[in-house]
Amino acid sequence: MHGIWTTDRIRAAEDRLLAITPDGALMRKAAFGVSVVAARMLADHTGAVAGRSVVLLVGAGNNGGDALWAGAFLRKRSAGVTAVLLNPERAHAEGLAALRRAGGRVVEAAEGPRWIERADLVIDGIVGLSARGSLRPDAAALVRRVVAPVLAIDLPSGVDPDTGAVEGDAVRASCTVTFGARKPVHALNPAWCGDVELVDIGLLPELGDPDLVRLDVGDVAAAWPVPGPDDDKYSQGVVGIAAGSATYPGAAVLATGAAALATSGMVRYAGSAADLVRARWPEVIATGSVTDAGRVQAWVVGPGIGTGGEGRSTLETVLGAGVPVCADADATTLIARVPEVLDARDPGTPLVLTPHAGEFARLMGDKPGADRVEAARAAAKKYDAVVLLKGHCTVVAEPGGRALVNTPRGSWPATAGSGDVLSGLVGSLLAVGLDPWLAAGAAAYVHSVAGEIASRGAPVPASALVDAIPDALRSVRSLAPRDV
Ligand SMILES: NC(=O)C1=CN([C@@H]2O[C@H](COP(=O)(O)OP(=O)(O)OC[C@H]3O[C@@H](n4cnc5c(N)ncnc54)[C@H](O)[C@@H]3O)[C@@H](O)[C@H]2O)[C@@H](O)CC1
Ligand SMILES: Nc1ncnc2c1ncn2[C@@H]1O[C@H](COP(=O)(O)OP(=O)(O)O)[C@@H](O)[C@H]1O
Ligand SMILES: [K+]
Fold first, then answer.
1. What pLDDT is attached to residue 482?
2. Is 79 helix (H, G, I), strand (E, B) or coil?
3. C-beta of 391 in contact with ligand 2 (< 6 A)
4. Residues 6+ apart with CB under 8 A from 182
5. Ligand 2 contact via 77 beta carbon (within 6 Å)
6. CATH says 217-479 is which class?
7. How confident is residue 483, by pLDDT bands cut at 50, 70 and 90?
8. How far is CA 470 from the centre of its chain?
């Protein structure tokens, strides 16, 4: 698991570390890391470092100090370096002196555009951890002139460090170099950060438990069930899928297919699309209704069931079955509109809710807003459930506050029916008895790997995502650090 810490926590840890470190040492270490990545980017994009033109956008704080020191290190590799000072009186004094000693050029903002436009690489040292709000107009005007790749220091300026939200002008980086530990912005807004590189400045021992985590491939591989010699079709958990209706039979086929491919246990289907499901997935035991579906160890309920009386009674039956439930799509809408359906929930029954932003607004009375992690936590608390908030970055939170984020690999899964596939994956993992929070996180991970494999750079329908599940699992298992 990769830990992620909020800026308050990072700042407190940095203060402790600063107290036991010689003056300026941390910044030079951080800036040296920036210069190494900058040199690599220059070499990759232009074939050389010496003689290439680097522009530093330098703000008033230590982020600007990092940029100035990184510029000084790049001068030692014979790059041409120009610092554009947004606030000359408050520019980091030692950094400025170091850059000048190394032969760097220093200009004020008014002179900036002509250097920025001709740069081979722009380094964003406008603002870092202390960023508040989007870029101010003077900084935004300079950033608009950039054509070269941008290397952001700590985070792309103008993007909120703790939520990743972009609410106005901001830097869009090809690469971000951060220090000590990842901050929420790096997991929640990969599109604006670009590739994220972590430079170790010895902060880890000063940090306690992370505020947020990202599962890595090893976590997912270790969590995913693998049958052993003593297993049979029942021992790995039977998942029931209550999905589909006359209007939306496809949702049933997608969710059931995902479940059939996720684990090697058994899948039952209950609903009006039984014939269609059987035709596509002959191994699934399909019946017309949840009341005569037989025993399962977890239910998925909701995709395409509709929000009428029949859907409601299906949901209530499933919630009263005493096994973990993944409530998706129409089930989330029903829960929002008719909260009494939750009275049918057996006390202690684990519940996973998987809303997209619109369903979330129904459940909570408002859209998730800029802070999606807090939004998911609030919903988890309100419904005493694990909440998987879908979107480009999926957030999974549980009532106690534990939260993870799944950073996607591209946006191709933003296609109709893709959520039905995810619900089938979640259900299979609930049926094997996995911790619901981990089940939701691992399912989101494999869902995005399947999206990447299925699309290979082109749009694909959700059924192709289902077909890619075996390759996604093979890939996860082969990339895991040890054979799990
Ligand atoms: N504390 C340390 O020892 C270390 C700090 N480091 C760097 O220090 C940074 C934090 O430095 P600071 O706390 O001095 O603050 P910043 O450099 O993040 O910000 C300083 C100033 O930027 C301005 N600002 C705020 N929001 C803005 C916006 N939206 N648009 C334009 N300007 C804005 C404000 O005037 C603020 O005072 C980190 O991000 C990191 O880059 C690194 O050198 C590692 C070591
Ligand atoms: N921009 C995006 N990038 C990556 N994944 C996305 C994006 N938008 C949506 N997704 C994922 O695609 C799925 C869409 O689910 P959902 O909105 O329920 O669609 P549907 O109801 O059509 O099945 C979710 O897993 C979500 O996280
Ligand atoms: K920055």
1. 67
2. coil
3. yes
4. 2, 3, 4, 5, 196, 198, 214
5. no
6. alpha beta
7. low
8. 22
Determine the pLDDT at residue 409. Answer: 79
Burial class (CB in 10 A: 0-12, 13-18, 19+), 46: middle
Which residue's alpha carbon is at the smallest distance from atom 25 of ligand 1? Answer: 131
**Would you say 62 and 29 are in contact if contact means Cβ atoms under 8 Å apart?**
no
DSSP-based three-state secondary structure for 88: helix
Question: Could you tell me the pTM of the whole model?
Answer: 0.94
Is pLDDT at 408 greater than 90 in this prediction? no
In the predicted model, is pLDDT for residue 456 greater than 80?
A: yes
Per-residue pLDDT at 93: 97
How far away, in angstroms, is 157 Cα from ligand 3 center? 4
Question: What distance in Å separates the CA atoms of residue 84 and residue 98, rounded to the nearest whole number?
Answer: 15
* Helices within 325-435 (DSSP H only): 330-337, 357-364, 372-383, 418-431
Give the tokens for residue 52. 């290439």
| Site residues for ligand 1, CB cut-off 6 Å | 14, 18, 26-27, 30, 59-64, 66, 126-136, 139, 153-154, 158, 179, 201
**pLDDT score recorded for residue 54:** 98
C-beta of 206 in contact with ligand 2 (< 6 A):
no
Domain ranges of the chain: 2-209, 217-479
Residue (of 98, 88, 82) closest to 24 by Cα position: 98
DSSP secondary structure, 239-256, as one string? EEEE---SS-HHHHHHHH
CB of 408 within 6 A of ligand 2: the answer is yes
Specify the CATH number of the domain 2-209.
3.40.50.10260
Pick from 60, 70, 13: nearest CA to 201: 13
Round to whole Å and give the CA distance between 365 and 429: 30
65 pocket-lining for ligand 2 (C-beta < 6 Å):
no
Q: How high is the ipTM of this complex?
A: 0.89
Contact 475/447 with Cβ under 8 angstroms?
no
CA of 44 to the centre of ligand 3 (A): 22
For the chain, percent of residues with pLDDT exceeding 70:
99
Read off the pLDDT of each residue in 463-481 and give the average, rounded to a whole number: 94
At 243, list the tokens. 């999905």
